[in-house]
Design goal:
Blueprint: E1 22-23, H1 36-54, H2 67-75, E2 86-89, H3 92-103, E3 109-112, H4 118-126, E4 130-133, E5 136-137, E6 140-141, H5 143-155, E7 160-165, H6 179-192, E8 195-199, H7 215-218, E9 223-228, E10 240-243, H8 249-260, H9 265-278, H10 281-306, E11 312-313, E12 322-327, H11 334-342, E13 345-346, E14 348-349, E15 362-366, H12 372-386
Parallel strand pairs: 1-13, 3-4, 3-7, 7-8, 8-9
Antiparallel strand pairs: 2-10, 5-6, 9-10, 11-12, 12-15, 14-15
Helix pairs in contact: 1-9, 3-4, 3-8, 5-6, 10-12, 11-12
């Protein structure tokens, strides 16, 4: 059942640009690393030799030629890709919506790791699900708090079926959940008959090349895994997948087909052609190098501009796209984001990542697509806004992604 929850399910407008604004908002990948000439030649060949198939409707499956490319990506984090249980999506956003509609029902509760990706919370709310924050400690999601929360909710008559997490280089914090903690969370999920939804856009983007074992690798039948090519290839192809537990495959595939009717044969063919000729390793390494350099530039600039006595604190992430600033005194970051916008730099205030007003003291900075020569300037502008007493007046205009 589709439930209209506007305005609660609206997304921030992260990809808008204009004027002299330096955007630290949207999570855009650095497409300068793509070998565009090679991709162009492969697309031309694909259309020339097989255009009548590539440009036509196709069956609602991950194309046979693309399965090895998916399997390779998941195996790098110890995951399992069974062709029979792969469901094509137009990126993880569609996957989230399919999961919410297929596996939840209006009024049921989904536990959410917070701060949370706004696209996920919007998908869940649009499907009529009630959101509840999953408890955390200094190491991330806490299995004992998970047990307590689920039992308390169920004792009041609420149905709790799923836990949503973005466990590796999380959006927006950049944090990664350790493997022992993942195993403990899964043990709690089994005890509670709780399905875990693993959203993993950034897992292969560790700056030092290391990876963390997926939840899905630890228990494929307890985990619905969402993968995407948007961050390790290009979002414009709108292509991703669900690796579904066997017993849920039919329900998820049925809803995915209703949403999209047909995956893009052209997009799947382009990805398969690239993988068959080049593999993933060189391209992923180029993405990692780009993001490592940009992250270091931004973190160094924050250190230089704000120093250790600032009311703002942050940690350097080990990968992904984001730096997460928090105000030590819990001040609302919204006015600071408005002040930054007045200075020509856009950031996303933490309220966009909350489910009930929490995390309003945060600011998300995205370094993945900022021109290198602009990073220091952007942080300088931002620091000017963060070191002033902001005006509380006005509303922050939503900024997307």
């Amino acid at each position: 059942m589709w439930t209209d929850t506007r305005p609660a399910a609206e997304l921030p407008k992260l990809f808008e640009r204009g004027g002299d604004v330096i955007s630290l908002s949207g999570g855009l990948p650095d497409l300068d690393v793509l070998p565009l000439d090679a991709i162009s030649n492969q697309l031309s060949r694909l259309v020339r030799l097989g255009g009548k198939l590539a440009l036509q409707y196709t069956t609602p499956h991950v194309a046979k030629a693309l399965v090895p490319a998916v399997a390779d990506l998941m195996a790098r984090e110890d995951g399992h890709a069974d062709a029979d249980n792969l469901i094509p999506t137009s990126g993880s956003q569609m996957g989230l919506t399919a999961v919410a509609l297929a596996l939840g029902a209006p009024g049921q509760t989904i536990l959410v790791q917070t701060p949370a990706y706004p696209g996920a919370t919007a998908a869940f709310r649009t499907a009529g699900l009630d959101l509840h924050a999953a408890g955390e400690d200094e190491h991330g999601l806490d299995p004992q708090q998970l047990r307590t929360t689920v039992r308390e909710l169920r004792s009041t008559g609420r149905t709790v079926r799923m836990l949503y997490t973005n466990p590796t280089f999380q959006n927006p914090t950049g944090a990664t959940l350790s493997v022992p903690r993942r195993a403990a969370i899964l043990a709690a999920c089994r005890e509670l008959d709780l399905l875990l939804v693993e959203d993993n856009p950034y897992g292969l983007l560790g700056f030092d090349g290391t990876t963390t074992t997926l939840f899905q690798a630890l228990d494929p039948q307890q985990v619905v895994y969402l993968g995407t090519f948007s961050k390790i290839f290009a979002p414009g192809l709108r292509s991703g997948w669900i690796a579904a537990p066997q017993h849920l495959r039919h329900d998820l595939a049925r809803v995915a087909e209703i949403i999209s009717l047909s995956p893009s044969a052209l997009a799947q063919g382009a990805l398969a052609a690239y993988y068959s000729r080049s593999g993933w390793s060189e391209l992923i390494d180029r993405f990692r190098d780009s993001y490592r350099e940009r992250c270091a530039l931004m973190a160094d600039a924050l250190d230089a501009e704000l120093g250790t006595d600032s009311p703002w604190h942050w940690q350097r992430p080990g990968g992904g796209f984001y730096l997460w600033l928090r105000h030590r005194d819990g001040a609302d970051a919204g006015p600071y984001a408005r002040a930054a916008a007045d200075r020509g730099v856009s950031v996303v205030p933490g309220g966009h990542f909350s489910i009930d007003g929490e995390h309003a003291d945060g600011l998300r900075l995205c370094f993945s697509n900022v021109p290198r020569k602009k990073i220091t300037e952007a942080v300088g502008r931002l620091a000017g806004a963060l070191t002033e007493q902001p005006s509380p007046a006005g509303e922050l205009t939503a900024v997307a992604g």
